[in-house]
Every structure is written in C-alpha cells, then in structure tokens.
Specification:
alpha+beta, three-stranded antiparallel β-sheet, globular, 3 domains, 50% helix
C-alpha cells in the first residue's frame, strides 16, 4: 500500500505540466518544491516521526514556500497552524520556546516579504481585479463602477488590461490624478465584497477559473525546443497522463473540482466522527481551507489576467487533497475498486458526450459523402460545420490576415469540386468576420478591443463581439472562435478531432500565427506555414433539411 501511495504521488507531481516550470524563471518551481516538502514533513509529524531537525526543516520549508510568491503567504499561514499545535502540545520548556520563536520569526519574515511587494505590482493587479475582472464582459459596467465607488467615466476601461495604452486606456496608472480617481477609492477587498453581493456573476467567474485550472501549465509555456527563427507554440505530451485526465473534464471543471472538495469534506467528517488525532484533523481542515482560498484569490486579486498561471497553486493544493483522500481511504478503495471504477467510468462518459448535433450529408469527397453538423439556424438558413477534417494544408505562407490567406483561396476552389450543381445552389454566399492582429487593427471595420486569448474552448470566444474585425464574403470558410465555442456547448466531443484544425481567428499579438483547436480541448496558436486539418463551415438554405431524403440524422 505504501508503494501505491508513492506511485500516485509520482504520477501526480512528476507530470510534465508541473515539470515544465523548471525550465523557466517563474516562481512556481520553488513553490511546488517547498509546498510538497512542507506537506511531507507535516505528514511525518502526524505519524509521530517528530524531531528537532524535522520541525526546523518544516519551518524553513514554509518560509521558502511563502517567499516564492506573495500569493503563497495565506496558504503558508494556514499550514503553520498544525505545526503550532504540535509544538504547543508535544514540546516543553526551552525547546518549545525556541521553536515558537522560530515560527514567529518565520511568519514575520514572510509577512514582511508580502508587505514589500512593489507598488507597481499592487497597482497593476488592483487595476486588473476591477477592469479586467469585475468589468470584464459585465452586462452593466456603469452600474458596477458606481457600486464600487468609482466615477462613471472609468466604465470606459471595461475589459482593458493594465498594459493597454491610448486610445484604449487614456490614463497613466502611476499618475497622482489616477491615484485619487481610482486607487484611493477601491481595492481588492471591495472587489471581493462586490462579488459576494452578486453571487451569479461570482459563480460564472469561478467557473471560468475552474476551466483555467484544468491544464497544469499556462498554455504559453511550451516544452518543445525549436530554432529561434521557427519559434512556435508547440507541445510534446510525454509524461503528461495526469494533465490529460484533468483536461478530459473540460466543460465540467466545476463538477470535477466540486467532487474532489466534496470527498475531502466527507473524509474530514469521518476523521471527526472517529475522533482521530487533532493534528490530523487540523492538517486536513487547513488544506481544504487553503484550497478554497487559492481557488478564489486569483480572480479576486488579478481578474482574468494570466488566469491559468495564477491557478497553479490551487492545482497543487487540489492534487494534494486527492492524495490525502487516497491515503486515508486506501482500504476502502481496494475493497470497492470495481464499484469506484464503474462510477468513475460513468462520470467520464457523462462529461464526454453531452448531446449530439444534428447531422446531414452534403457533397462528396473521394467518392464518399461529406457529413456536416448543424451549428446554427437563422433566417431560413442553416450554418454547417464539417464533422471531420476534410484535408490538411497551411493557413498561409506568412500572414495571419485571413481575408488574404491562401487557405481561403483553397476553400473557394473546393466548392466546385465537392458539390454538385444542385448542391451549390443551396450554399449561400454569406458575410463573415475575420479578427485582426495588432499590426492591422487600424484597418478593422468594427471593434474597439484586442481579442483576448483564453485557451479552454468553453470560454475561448471571450470578447470576440468587441474585437477588431473585418467583414468578408465567402461560400465556405474556416470556423471562427465563436463557431468552435458554440459547437463545444452543443457537443463537447464534436468540437475536437484526433488532429488539430485551423480557425480563421488571428493571434492578435503576431502577424504570422493563427488560432487552432487541439485534441486536448484547448485553443492554441501555430505558425501559419504549419499544415493542420481544415474543417470548413458554410451557410446553406434550410430546405436542405427536408429536400434531401435520408440526409438528416
């Protein structure tokens, strides 16, 4: 049994989603090391393996964990509580006094580090918490600004991050006038209170945090080495089993997290009923509290900005809770292995196939009928998306301006190849929108914001309705970021394919990268000269649903 627990520990924490941080300058690498070390040493104390060396090592580990990032301090403070209880209960005399002094010095040093967080960092995160958090996609930004005690003119900063400049953000964060206009009037505590007064909004924000927490790494942290002139967002999925399991719950992240938290609470209640050691009960209680806190803190303290990376500490806490559940209930799991396995299989199936889109056939490719999903209905027209990738090609040779991309020219040529004359009469030349990158945003027909990237498909569209975009007409085109999000909500399993496929959406911060859908339920970007799958969309007359006998599934 001891070996099985150790194997589970390695399975969870040696996943490449965690290991890639060790090839970066981010503070997550020492966070992982010292949080896991602190947990292991606390388990040593619970099992009665106490010594001065272990306690001193635990104090040092908690200090280094807290010092890795200011956001770690609340968790470090909570994890200190079982240690304090152990010292006061088990140690005596000078040793107790010495250890209490060491703990106090550690907490003072850790809190001092937090207090010395640079002023610019506090301002940026507070700005994000309000304008890139509360006001992000808010249905009534003027009312929200008023409730936060801010002047109404600041509502123009909705969905604007702290690094934006004029015309998006006419204010200087570090100017005294903006200090009195914004920072002197509100703060992160006000943000938390606002969310508590608006639970529906808070629940939606936390669901987005849950989706962001499924990948263990932020989706810009690649682990594939390529020459600098070919820099690309390219992943190797070796040693990635646990992160792959987590991503399987895309669209149902809140259910997954809620299940783990619910089992943790049941486990804690069982410890209370059986009156096990108070140290063990305290350890499990503070770990649950720390997990809940780290689930809430990123959205409240920094809004949507870099949300996936800021969910890292929550992920480690959650995985520790899973480990604790298995440690405490290993015998139960062994006795009921078959039943638990069937329950987990049912949960996986339930979260994989929520619904099935209508399917029709239209056109032929290599002698076989082409199947399409019904994506949307509007004004006696139906929008279709190919059920599968129909061919592979590059987006363009060098540009992510979709209105001029080579891939659209190829799709135009396919219309006469795949469809009969009768079928072509059903296909409508429709208006579509192509999102612009930063370099050609000034050429946009509509929109007043960059398109922000959020990789989980469930919320990938983000602010596309306000993003810089240009209209174009076509009979058949690539799916947009909105199309794939709509398909995901119709049927999660239908939204991905065994291979990655292109979207028409440009990557805003680049001129040579475009968005694509990966088989792991994430939207990434790749260089436009990469060959990926093509899954076209088109508008057709809705009479196709009734005129072609046997075509509608």
């Amino acid at each position: 049994m001891n070996i099985a627990i150790k194997m589970l520990f390695l399975f969870l924490f040696l996943d490449s989603g965690y290991l890639v941080y060790f090839n970066s300058f981010y503070g997550e690498a020492p966070t992982l090391i010292f949080l896991l070390l602190s947990f292991v040493l606390l388990v040593y104390l619970e099992k009665g393996k106490s010594s001065l060396l272990i306690i001193i090592a635990l104090i040092g580990s908690l200090f280094l964990f807290s010092g890795s990032k200011p956001a770690n301090f609340p968790s470090a403070l909570l994890l200190t509580l079982p240690l304090v209880y152990h010292v006061l209960r088990r140690e005596e005399g000078r040793k107790r006094f010495f250890l209490c002094a060491c703990i106090a010095a550690m907490l003072m040093g850790a809190s001092g580090y937090v207090k010395h967080t640079p002023d610019w960092m506090n301002k940026v995160t507070t700005f994000h918490a309000v304008f890139f958090g509360v006001l992000y996609d808010h249905p009534a930004p003027e009312e929200a600004v008023k409730e936060l005690g801010l002047p109404p003119e600041l509502s123009q900063l909705e969905a604007v991050n702290a690094y934006a400049h004029e015309p998006l953000n006419p204010y200087n964060l570090y100017d005294s006038s903006f200090q009195s206009l914004f920072f002197d009037r509100t703060g992160k505590l006000d943000v938390l209170l606002y969310y508590l007064k608006h639970p529906a909004l808070f629940a939606e924000k936390l669901d987005m945090s849950a989706e962001a927490a499924l990948p263990l790494r932020p989706t810009y942290l690649t682990n594939k080495e390529v020459p600098s002139e070919q820099a690309d967002l390219w992943f190797a999925f070796r040693l990635n089993a646990w992160e792959s399991v987590r991503k399987h719950f895309s669209g149902f992240a809140s259910l997954f997290i809620g299940a783990v938290m619910g089992l943790s609470m049941v486990n804690l209640i069982l410890h209370l009923r059986r009156r096990t050691s108070l140290f063990g009960i305290l350890l499990r209680a503070v770990l649950i509290c720390a997990t809940v806190g780290q689930f809430i803190i990123p959205m409240v303290s920094n809004g949507h900005a870099d949300l996936q990376k800021h969910m890292f500490l929550f992920n480690v806490h959650l995985d520790l809770l899973i480990l604790v559940i298995v440690m405490d209930r290993a015998g139960f799991f062994l006795r009921h292995f078959r039943q638990i396995g069937l329950a987990l299989l049912f949960l996986c199936l339930l979260t994989s196939f929520p619904g099935k889109p209508e399917t029709i056939t239209l056109g032929r490719l290599e002698g076989k009928p082409i199947e399409w999903y019904v994506l949307e209905r509007r004004d006696e027209q139906v929008k279709l998306i190919a059920k599968d990738s129909l061919f592979r090609t590059s987006y363009d040779e060098r540009s992510n301006d979709y209105t001029k991309a080579g891939i659209q020219t190829e799709l135009d040529d396919k219309v006469s190849t795949w469809f009969s004359q009768e079928e072509r009469e059903l296909i409508q030349k429709a208006n579509y929108s192509a999102l612009r990158n930063a370099s050609n945003a000034s050429l946009a027909d509509e929109g007043d914001r960059p398109h922000y990237w959020f990789s989980p498909i469930k919320y990938a569209a983000q602010n596309s309705d306000r993003a810089y975009r240009t209209a174009y007409s076509a009979y058949m085109t690539l799916p947009s970021i909105d199309d794939v999000q709509r398909l995901f909500r119709l049927s999660k399993s239908a939204s991905i394919l065994p291979e990655s496929y292109w979207l028409s959406t440009a990557y805003f911060s680049s001129t040579d990268k475009a968005r694509m859908v990966s088989p792991d339920y994430q939207v990434y970007h790749r260089r436009v000269d990469t060959e990926l799958g093509v899954r076209p969309v088109q508008w057709v007359k809705d009479s196709i649903l009734y005129s072609k006998k046997g075509s509608l599934d």
